[in-house]
TrEMBL record:
It comes from the Bacteria. Pfam families: PagL. This is Lipid A 3-O-deacylase PagL.
Amino acid sequence: MRWRKWVLITVLAMVVGETGAWAAEKLVFGIGVRSGFSAIKKDETFHIHELIAYHTLPWDWQWNGGWILDTFWEIHFGLLRAADKESVLISTGPMVTLQTPWKSLAFMAAVRPAFLEDHNFGKENLGGEIQFTEEIGINLILSKYFSLGYRFQHLSNAGLYTHNPGLDFHVLELRCLLPGYLDEGQGP
């Protein structure tokens, strides 16, 4: 079991280190906070709290109607909490956003491999340390630097372990682009 933790941490470090070279052309950095709770009743009620760091990737597409598809790389550091127990949850991976022509609304989707420090929470066993998180959501762009978002997030081990109950969350988040890194026309 311990070797899996080190393999995952090593792979995540290599992936995060490599993406910096890809995004040199139009690098925009941002940070965020998010918090959520179980969407579906289980034996235990789960809460998730995360800090986010993200940057743009060099691929984006713009259409004549004003729609913009943009790509990002995210790193999440958080806590998963249930049954009076907390466990560190770390994930990293790509996100795509589709910004509407009126620039105040964006849709997003993301998928990330994740590492969960401990997978037992009272009566709930999430199967193992290696997890995957997928999410879809919507962002309300409040200003050039800030956005408020809702995410429907799924966390599971994708059948890597015998026990795979999966968790679904309703998550609210606040994102902030770091001043000095913002190009004209880009938003969170």
